[in-house]
Write a structure and sequence with these properties.
The complex is a heterodimer of chains A (107) and B (130). Chain A has 107 residues and is mostly helical. Chain A has 4 helices and no strands. Chain A has one domain. The longest helix of chain A is centred in the first third of the chain and has 29 residues. Helices cover 80% and strands 0% of the residues of chain B. Chain B contains 5 helices and no strands. The longest helix of chain B is centred in the middle third of the chain and has 35 residues. The termini of chain B are far apart. The chains are: A mainly alpha (107), B mainly alpha (130). At the A-B interface, helix 2 and helix 4 of A face helix 3 and helix 4 of B.
Chain lengths: 107, 130
């Protein structure tokens, strides 16, 4: 006899694949943030650079929080679709990270 | 442009997307979400490239270095904004049972990345150092 929980789950493992996609995205975000932090560690940092670096780290933490929330919700057997607020937050966080990079170019 | 502005309104009205049409099979929504994430990763990779050009090519002339970094960063921003816009439009199209929106963006991004890559090749071959 088959386990009823196993029958209820999608054989295509869509929620798991989506969770792994979020994980890959947090890794990409981590790499970009690490490059931003590295800039401050190497060029005798000014105060403005330190502020930008702190902002990058905050954005990274925010991104991790959004991803973590979504990954928790994906644990359900029949997950709800992604909410627009999470999608917009993730995209605007990425944009803000790019703005930090632009600020670092000119300081 | 008009569709972009309409999409923009949807970004900030979280409930609106869910009110329209019927909820599609959750697997379609998840596939749409993964596509969104793939575009977001592309954006993050471009932004990482912008950071890297600034840091790992210190011998380049200032203008060239900043120009290349800005091109990558602008491409990254466009990619992130387009990711969420396309996601909203696909989600809405699926709910209404319409065709998925067509997009010129992948071609434009491809051309932009090719131009940046060619510029880098030229810089490496001719050694435009400051």
């Amino acid at each position: 006899m088959r386990d009823s929980a196993a029958v209820a789950r999608d054989p295509g493992l869509q929620p798991e694949r989506t969770r792994l996609a979020w994980r890959r995205t947090t890794l990409a975000c981590t790499v970009a943030t690490a490059l931003g932090v590295r800039a401050v560690l190497h060029d005798g940092a000014s105060a403005a650079d330190a502020v930008t670096c702190g902002l990058c780290l905050l954005l990274w933490l925010g991104f991790l929080a959004v991803a973590h929330r979504r990954m928790t919700l994906l644990g359900a057997a029949r997950p709800r679709p992604l909410g627009p607020r999470a999608a917009v937050t993730a995209a605007l966080g990425t944009t803000a990270l790019a703005m930090c990079a632009v600020a670092m170019l000119f300081t | 442009m008009i569709t972009f502005v309409q999409g923009l309104r949807l970004w900030f009205a979280p409930g609106r997307v869910r009110e329209e049409g019927e909820t599609p099979d959750y697997r379609f929504s998840l596939a749409n979400e993964r596509t969104f994430l793939a575009w977001l990763r592309t954006a993050l990779a471009l932004i990482g490239g912008g950071f890297a050009v600034d840091q790992f090519l210190p011998d380049l002339r200032w203008g060239v270095r900043v120009g290349l970094a800005l091109a990558l960063l602008v491409a990254g921003v466009l990619c992130a904004l387009r990711a969420v816009n396309h996601w909203v439009r696909c989600e809405r199209a699926m709910r209404r049972g319409e065709d998925l929106p067509a997009s010129r963006f992948p071609a434009l991004l491809g051309v932009l990345v090719a131009v940046v890559a060619l510029a880098m090749v030229v810089i490496v071959v001719f050694g435009w150092e400051g």
